Amino acid sequence: MSDVAANETRDLISSDKVEGTAVYDRNGNKLGTVTNVMLDKRSGHVAYAVLSFGGFLGMGSSYHPLPWDQLTYNRDQGGYVVDLTEEQLRGAPTYSAPEEARWGDPTYGRKIDAYYGSVEGRRSP
Amino acid sequence: MSDVAANETRDLISSDKVEGTAVYDRNGNKLGTVTNVMLDKRSGHVAYAVLSFGGFLGMGSSYHPLPWDQLTYNRDQGGYVVDLTEEQLRGAPTYSAPEEARWGDPTYGRKIDAYYGSVEGRRSP
């Protein structure tokens, strides 16, 4: 999408703008990019952003679902900042191909939330 | 995405699965497809689904932002159902190219909500 005004404003951002946006650590090192977000159907909340990490053109990448509330957009960097190190990401729940994500397992989300110290209530406004 | 289990479960759906999903009226007529969703940055809520409507390969399409709570997923149809007629959609706030969306105008979302009889509070769980 070419026009920033159309796919992002102060309050709103388009899903296709989030997809592909870079994710940085606190020191400005690029950790990866957001491939997609997982939406909670019942609450209408954004539950997770899936960070793809490493690899080249999708080969050898790993995917790390992050609780959405871990991401803070930084306008100057043009990407999201997370308060996580590459080491912390390496130890986090991950999968190496999209079809390996265990979203169907109800404990999977809880495992992710627990790793990042996020509680479900935190995602509600 | 090939694997349903990976991009949709009972509770979660991936943004890239929502994008491209068909939207039907109550009589099963296809109205269009979801091109993208607009996320509310502060609340983390899905605010709008943008329905593309008519046209061919994006030429001559029109885009209709719908309050997210208007869409109900129907498993049998494999798409979203809205309680709207094609006529109601034709009269709704619309734009003919992505860059024409007036998301930057704070009254734009309210105009959409008002048209569909949605109130902001309804989107909160």
Q: Would you mind describing this structure in some detail?
A:
Two copies of one chain form a homodimer. Chain A is of the alpha+beta class and 125 residues long. Helices cover 18% and strands 30% of the residues of chain A. Chain A has helices at residues 4-7, 15-18, 86-90, 106-115; strands at residues 12-14, 22-24, 30-40, 46-53, 62-67, 72-74, 79-81. A six-stranded mixed beta sheet of chain A has the order 5-4-3-2-7-6. Chain A is globular and about 35 Å long. Chains A and B meet through helix 1, strand 1, helix 2, strand 3 and strand 4 of A and helix 1, strand 1, helix 2, strand 3 and strand 4 of B.
Nutshell version of this structure?
Two copies of one chain form a homodimer. The first copy, chain A, has 125 residues and is of the alpha+beta class.
Described by its quaternary structure, the protein is: homodimer
Q: Which class of secondary structure composition applies to the elements of chain A? A: alpha+beta
In what range is the share of β-strand residues of chain A? 25-35%
The major pleated sheet of chain A works out as:
6 strands, mixed
How many E strands of chain A?
A: 7
Distance between the termini of chain A: 29 Å
Alpha plus pi helix count of chain A: 4
Radius of gyration of chain A: 14 Å
Please state the overall shape of chain A, judged from the principal axes of the Cα atoms: globular
Mean pLDDT of chain A: 83
Tell me the strand order in the biggest sheet of chain A.
5-4-3-2-7-6
Which H/E pattern describes the elements of chain A?
HEHEEEEEEHH
Low-confidence stretches of chain A: 120-125
Helix content of chain A: 10-25%
Biggest interchain interface, per-side counts: A-B, 46 and 46 residues
